[in-house]
Every structure is written in structure tokens, then in C-alpha cells.
Amino acid sequence: xxNKRENIAEYVLYLWQIEDYLRAFPEQAxxxxxxxxxxxxxxxxxxxxxxxxxxxxxxxxxxxxxxxxLLQEDAQYRAMVxxxxxxxxxxxxxxxxxxxxxxxxCLVLLYQIMMLRLQxxxxxxxxxxVQQQATRLLQIISRCYYDDQTTI
Length: 152
Hints:
The protein is mainly α and 152 residues long.
């Protein structure tokens, strides 16, 4: 499994991908203990038809906490978020959850781009620019999380 401490954003995206995989191919869970455990968690948490595991939700909450702290403490980070805000607002408005957090919107964006690439679909230049900005924001959050975890 992806190591949450090394890159919390990748960890969340990995969990989302595994959730979708297990929903599409539940029989594959029997081939690997980790998949079996995650499939069992999906059932136990009532997420077999949709939604995210508590593991992913908890990690997202930790990311949002760091995001909130960075917004208060780091002017450059705050400026980065402000530049990204219009694109995130458009993305949010196109979902069934327009009030999702900015961090979750960045993750949703990256996940959707990953799915488009798997389908060999073209990604517009504008979307690629937003992807780069969202990736940078998540890298900063992940680095702060890593630094926090290694100093404990």
C-alpha cells in the first residue's frame, strides 16, 4: 500500500483508485490480502456502491488541516490558492458536491485527469495548467505532512 507518511496526497488518490477497482472487479480482492482487507472495509463501512473509506476521509481531513494552517501562515501559499480558486470553483460547480473543500477539489481534478489518461483522452492545455497548479498545492501539503510526521 502507498505510504501515507511519504506522500499523503498520493495515498488518498491510491485509496480512491483501489475503491473504484474493487467496485469494478470485486473478485480480484481474493488475489491479495491487502485488497481483501480493503474490500471488507468497503462492505463494513457501507461504501461498496460509492463514497470513500474512512481511511481516505481521515487523510483528507489531515490535509485540510494543513491547508488551513498554511492559508493563515504562508502568503505565497495563499496567493497560489487564490490563483487556483476560479478553476476549482468551476470544477466544484460541475460536481454533485459544489461545497467540497479546495483540497478535495484538487484531488478530484487529479483523479479525473488520471482517468482520462487511462482512457487515452486528450487533456486541454488549460486543464494541464490547472493540473500543475493543483499538483504543486498538494505537494506542499504533502511535504508539510511528511515534515510533521518525521519530527514527531
